Every structure is written in structure tokens, then in C-alpha cells.
């Protein structure tokens, strides 16, 4: 019996052929699979993004609010902050938005027929995040501005869709320090069972009491602690304070020098709290009249205001809330209503509006500059140099038609305030309208800066005024050195007024007080000049007195009650008026020039100013407004280069170079155009040009 092996000449099996062919073309196959996978992934991601960016009919906006999620101005986030927050256990990653962005999103949703309501979740986040955002809660003026926007949204939707189809839902586990209880109008309102706070569409009564307690603590407890600290330091080291205040209502030095709140300052504080109390109770009565009674809401609130705080069950029985839910039930409501995030809606809506604006034509551009916190010298996010540079950058931007200076500051350094005030004058000298918008507070140095703005706007609950000056000079007497066994020898070649070991006496004290008087006179003089008021009237409303904006409007310290959104619209109106005036001026000069040339038989050429300053078309009224924040974001390498050199001097030099280059380039272009036209027409006579706007240089004092 014989066996025969495989025939070498026979073709290999099909499987073997397939494997060999696959291996031989492995690179092509891998590349093709990669292309197919990438295309499929891109298509799936694109379709998912399209679905996310599609605003469907009957959409409800989901608004997640935590302490620190709404701010006046974003200050950027360093890599270290992002990493620490990413690895923070239990921390909720809530997007930070500015107050203007949130209000603009609500305004856009008001006019969008696809949106039928807002669901706001104000439950507290993790303890770690609360610690990170301590002090980042919204103030009363900001809360009121949000409340007005939501009230306007609710009324518009109810008028258009009917009350039954509008869904306004708010949820919180407990109020705590979250004061975003700002919903106007009636709706489904909830609070976590067992919580001590209540949620409703309006500023809650118990939160109002907490707010009063906060003010009492702000006024009394720090005074107690600082006063005791000063007295203890005085006993231990014989330290003392030399203070001067202009005038009796200026309370900043009383914290360090008085054992009791002076009568004028107590009277001032009581008047402010009375004004806020009346406004808050009025808003609450308006928004809760359905639960508290159509005609008994005010009297019911007057009774309840003395009974808080309330547990959730008590708040529901009292009519302060409509129901009780837990967080998981609120999540189910969000899922059932197919809610879209408010911040995501804003991004989608901005893309839609950008396309609409491109079709409509030109829009008014408003630049916004922020000043938040204590006014201080130097750089930093809101230092005097940074704010001045931002104003200068906005004024030098040829696309900007007007500027809004948003201030949320209780004052600060006199020199820094004067530096920023001079930058405001520079903006006006450039012919650009500038509007001051006040946040929670714009007093003392904050008001000093805004005196020469074209308009001043503030929310009714803004604290402003405090037109006065305070100076505090601590010193250590010789008794301390005797107690410590230290001998200090002092040699002076001039005045001893700057020595911390020397009290002011005699002529030094007289000069010190005269300097404070001079600063007060300069402050009141600026107010009289900028606000066009009689000096005697300014003196009557000054004296360091703090005003609620609702009262300040009646005495002429502010022009109009309104928040950031209204301030931007007012600035746009002023910018449009400026452009129309410029167009009329240019066209008038052009007509005169054309008439003069027509008499001489010369064809005139359009001036560089008309070509490069004015847009081709101007809207007849303010429609779409484009907002640009200054200072504009810069690339990392540019910021790194600026940090390694003298920013201020180099920025001035760069502005000078840009100015000269713009002048030379414009004139060369005009000369070339004129030469070509004259050559083609055979005209030898010189054509008169209209003088163009000059770019000036800011000099910081």
C-alpha cells in the first residue's frame, strides 16, 4: 500500500490564500479600517451634537445654581485650580457664568417660542465646593436683577402660551447661604423635606431674616472683635490710632475707633434696611399672593417675618412654598420634561443669532470693562493699572461704539481711584460714550470713578454714595518700647509725619486734617462737575452718607434704575447717536467740499475719515448689540512675553507705533487714490481732505 503526498503544483487551499492575501495587504486593510472607523465615529458624534444643539418645541431650560456659579466677571482659571477641582472628592462641576450671560440667556428664551419654562435647582453642592466658593454668593442687587428678568420671562410666556402651559419649577434642599430666591410669578416651588429653608418665586421671608442677621453681624460683631483687638493691642503695646473722617456718616473708621455705632451712622443704616425691607416684602407679596391670599399677602408676610426660620413642612403650611421634594425626585422631573441646560441653550442660541445678524447687517458694538472688589494700585485682575489698560484698549478699538464700566466695589485707595477716573475722562475725550453700571455696591471710590460717565445706572438694591474721605494712621508710642526694653533712636531730616513711632501734633496734625479736607472738597467738586449739580446740594447729600439706589435716583446721584442688561442697551443707544452725529458731520463737510469743487470744476474724492471711521450702513434704531469684554483674552505666549517686560511702558510704545502707522498708511492710501483719480481725469488742482479723528495717547498720572 502506497501513500501519496500533496501535489506541489496544486493550488493552495482558499483559507491559506485568504490569510496570505490579508497579511500581504495588511497596511491597506488597517488604513481602510481606520478611515471607516474615524468616519463612523465622526458621523455618530456629529449626529449626537446636532441632536444636542437642536432646540425642540416645548423645551424646558434646566438651570443649576450654586454658590459661585454666577459671578460679575470671570477671572480665568489656572491649571492648578482646574486640577484641584477635578480631583476634589464629591465636588460638583458647575459651569461659571457671568451675570450678564445668564440674564441675556433668559431674555433670549423669553422671545423663543420653543421654550416653555425654567427649572432651577438651587440645592447646595459639596462641602468642599462650598468652602472653595465661600463669599461667592450673589448680593441683593444681583438677585433683584435676576428676579426681574425671570419675572419678565414668566409674564411674557403666560401671555403668549397661557398659564397652564408655562412650567416654572424651583428646587432646593435648604436655603443656607444661597440667596438666589429670585423667581417672580407663581409656579411649582419645592423645598427638601426636613430643610430649614423654603423655596418660592421671590425673596423668601426667612432668607430675608438671615439677610438682616448678616447685616447685624456685619455691623456689630466685627466692630466688637476689632474694637477689642485694638483695645488689647493698646494695653499690650501702647498702640493708638489717629483717624479722620469726612463727614459724620463716613463709618469705615468707626470700626476701629468707636465703642458704639454713632447716631448718624445708625440712622443711615436703619434707613437703608427699611428701604430694602419694604422692597423685599413688596416683591414677596406680589409673587406669593396666590398662596398667601390675593389681598392678605402683605399682612401675612408682616406677621410671618417675625416667626422664622421655618422647616419645610411649616413653610408649606404657611404658604411660602408649594411642595416638598428630594433631589432624586427633582432629577426625575428634569428627565421627564426633556430639559436643556441654560448655559448650553445660550451657546446654541448665540450661534443662531450670529447667523441672523450676518444676514441683517451691521450691529452696535459695546465694550464692557469690569471693576470688582477693593480698588487698589498696581496690576492684578482688577488693579488700577489693569482697569486703565482695559479702558484704553476698549477706547482704541475702532469697532467699539460705546463702553460700559461695570463697578461692584465699596471703594479703596484714593490714588488708584483717581487713576481710573482719569482713564474715564480719556475715554470721553476720545468721543466714545461711557456708561457706569453699579452692581451690589458702588460707593466711595467706586462712585468717585463714575462721576464723569455719560450715564449712571444701578439696581434698586445697590448701595452707593458714601461721598466722603476717611484716613486711618496707627502709631506706636514710647511706652511700648520701654515695656519691651528696646530703645529706638530716631533721626529726621524733614517731617516726622510718616514715622509709625510718632503721633501727629501741632502743625503736623493741622496739615494732616487740611489734606483730608482737600480730598473731601475734591470729591464733592467732582460730583458737582460730573453730575451738573449745585455744590450746596452735593454737600447736603454727601457727608459720607450711604444711599440705596432707589433713593439715590431721587436726589440725582444716578440717572436710571437698571442692571447690566439695561446699561448695555443705554450705551448702545448713546453709541448709535454718536455715529449718526458723526455721519451728519461728515456728510455736511463733504457736501460743502463737493459744492466748492463743483464751483471750481473739480471732482472731489471721499475723505479717509469717511472711508475708515464710519460704517457703510447705520441702523435706524438699536437692534442687535454685540458685547466685547476688555481686556480681550490674549494667547499664552503673548501673556508670557508681556509678563517678562515693562508692560505699561511697552504698551504705551506699541500704541504710539500703531497710531503713527495708521496715520501714515491712511494718508498714503488717500494720496494714491487721489493721484490715480486726478491722473485719469486730467485734474491738476489739489483736492481738500476732511481732517480725520486723531488717536491720542493716555498719560497715567
TrEMBL record:
GO molecular function: serine-type peptidase activity
Residue ranges constituting the Peptidase S49 domain according to the UniProt record: 428-574
UniProt-listed GO biological process terms: proteolysis
Keywords from the UniProt entry: Hydrolase, Membrane, Protease, Serine protease, Transmembrane, Transmembrane helix
Pfam families found in the cross-reference section: Peptidase_S49
Regions that span the bilayer: 29-46
Membrane is among the record's keywords: yes
Domain of life: Eukaryota
InterPro entries: ClpP/crotonase-like_dom_sf, Peptidase_S49, S49_SppA_C
Record-stated family: Belongs to the peptidase S49 family.
Protein name: Peptidase S49 domain-containing protein
Amino acid at each position: 500500500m502506497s501513500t501519496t503526498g500533496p501535489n506541489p503544483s496544486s493550488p493552495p487551499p482558499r483559507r491559506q490564500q485568504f490569510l496570505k492575501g490579508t497579511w500581504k495587504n495588511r497596511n491597506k486593510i488597517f488604513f481602510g479600517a481606520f478611515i471607516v472607523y474615524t468616519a463612523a465615529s465622526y458621523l455618530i458624534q456629529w449626529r449626537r451634537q446636532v441632536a444636542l444643539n437642536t432646540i425642540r418645541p416645548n423645551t424646558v431650560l434646566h438651570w443649576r445654581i450654586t454658590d459661585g456659579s454666577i459671578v460679575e466677571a470671570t477671572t480665568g482659571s489656572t491649571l492648578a485650580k482646574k486640577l484641584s477641582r477635578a480631583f476634589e472628592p464629591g465636588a460638583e462641576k458647575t459651569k461659571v457664568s457671568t451675570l450678564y450671560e445668564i440674564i441675556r440667556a433668559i431674555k433670549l428664551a423669553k422671545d423663543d417660542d420653543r421654550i416653555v419654562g425654567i427649572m432651577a435647582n438651587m440645592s447646595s453642592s459639596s462641602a468642599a465646593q462650598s468652602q472653595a466658593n465661600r463669599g461667592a454668593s450673589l448680593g441683593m442687587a444681583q438677585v433683584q436683577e435676576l428676579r426681574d428678568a425671570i419675572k419678565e420671562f414668566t409674564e411674557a410666556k403666560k401671555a403668549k402660551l397661557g398659564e397652564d402651559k408655562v412650567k416654572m419649577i424651583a428646587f432646593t434642599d435648604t436655603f443656607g447661604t444661597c440667596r438666589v430666591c429670585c423667581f417672580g410669578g407663581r409656579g411649582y416651588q419645592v423645598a427638601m423635606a426636613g430643610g430649614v429653608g423654603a423655596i418660592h418665586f421671590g425673596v423668601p421671608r426667612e432668607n430675608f431674616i438671615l439677610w438682616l442677621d448678616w447685616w447685624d453681624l456685619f455691623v456689630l460683631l466685627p466692630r466688637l472683635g476689632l474694637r477689642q483687638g485694638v483695645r488689647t493691642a493698646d494695653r499690650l503695646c501702647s498702640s493708638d490710632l489717629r483717624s479722620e473722617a469726612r463727614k459724620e456718616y463716613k463709618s469705615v473708621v468707626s470700626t476701629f475707633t468707636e465703642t458704639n455705632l454713632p447716631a448718624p451712622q445708625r440712622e443711615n443704616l436703619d434707613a437703608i434696611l427699611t428701604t430694602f425691607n419694604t422692597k423685599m416684602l413688596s416683591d414677596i407679596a406680589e409673587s406669593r399672593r396666590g398662596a398667601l391670599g390675593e389681598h392678605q399677602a402683605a399682612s401675612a408676610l408682616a406677621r410671618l417675618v417675625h416667626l422664622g426660620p421655618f422647616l419645610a413642612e411649616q413653610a408649606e403650611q404657611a404658604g411660602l412654598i408649594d411642595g416638598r421634594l428630594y433631589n432624586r425626585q427633582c432629577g426625575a422631573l428634569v428627565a421627564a420634561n426633556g430639559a436643556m441646560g441654560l448655559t448650553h441653550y445660550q451657546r446654541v442660541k448665540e450661534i443662531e443669532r450670529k447667523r441672523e445678524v450676518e444676514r441683517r447687517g451691521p450691529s452696535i458694538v459695546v465694550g464692557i470693562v469690569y471693576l470688582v472688589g477693593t480698588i487698589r494700585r498696581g496690576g492684578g485682575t482688577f488693579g488700577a493699572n489693569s482697569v486703565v489698560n482695559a479702558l484704553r484698549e476698549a477706547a482704541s478699538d475702532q469697532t467699539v461704539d460705546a463702553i460700559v464700566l461695570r463697578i461692584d466695589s465699596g471703594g479703596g485707595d484714593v490714588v488708584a481711584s483717581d487713576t481710573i477716573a482719569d482713564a474715564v475722562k480719556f475715554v470721553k475725550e476720545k468721543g466714545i460714550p461711557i456708561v457706569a453700571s453699579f452692581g451690589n455696591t458702588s460707593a466711595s471710590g467706586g462712585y468717585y470713578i463714575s462721576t464723569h460717565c455719560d450715564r449712571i445706572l444701578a439696581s434698586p438694591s445697590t448701595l452707593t454714595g458714601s461721598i466722603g474721605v476717611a484716613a486711618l494712621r496707627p502709631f506706636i508710642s514710647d511706652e511700648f518700647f520701654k515695656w519691651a526694653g528696646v530703645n529706638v533712636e530716631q533721626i529726621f531730616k524733614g517731617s516726622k509725619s510718616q514715622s509709625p513711632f510718632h503721633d501727629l501734633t501741632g502743625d503736623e496734625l493741622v496739615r494732616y486734617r487740611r489734606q483730608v479736607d482737600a480730598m473731601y472738597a475734591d470729591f464733592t467738586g467732582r460730583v458737582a462737575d460730573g453730575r451738573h449739580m449745585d455744590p450746596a446740594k452735593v454737600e447736603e447729600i454727601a457727608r459720607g452718607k450711604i444711599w440705596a439706589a432707589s433713593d439715590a435716583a431721587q436726589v440725582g446721584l444716578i440717572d436710571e434704575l437698571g442692571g447690566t442688561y439695561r446699561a448695555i442697551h443705554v450705551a448702545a443707544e448713546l453709541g448709535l447717536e454718536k455715529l449718526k452725529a458723526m455721519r451728519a458731520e461728515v456728510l455736511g463737510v463733504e457736501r460743502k467740499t463737493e459744492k466748492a469743487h463743483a464751483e471750481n470744476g473739480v471732482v472731489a474724492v471721499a475723505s479717509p475719515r469717511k472711508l475708515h471711521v464710519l460704517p457703510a450702513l447705520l441702523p435706524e434704531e438699536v437692534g442687535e448689540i454685540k458685547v466685547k469684554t476688555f481686556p480681550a483674552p490674549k494667547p499664552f505666549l503673548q501673556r508670557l512675553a508681556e509678563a517678562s517686560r515693562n508692560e505699561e511702558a511697552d504698551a504705551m510704545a506699541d500704541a504710539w507705533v500703531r497710531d503713527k502707522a495708521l496715520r501714515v498708511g491712511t494718508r498714503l492710501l488717500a494720496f494714491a487714490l487721489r493721484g490715480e483719480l486726478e491722473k485719469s481725469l486730467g485734474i491738476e488742482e489739489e483736492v481738500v481732505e476732511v481732517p480725520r479723528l486723531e488717536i491720542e495717547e493716555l498719560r497715567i498720572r
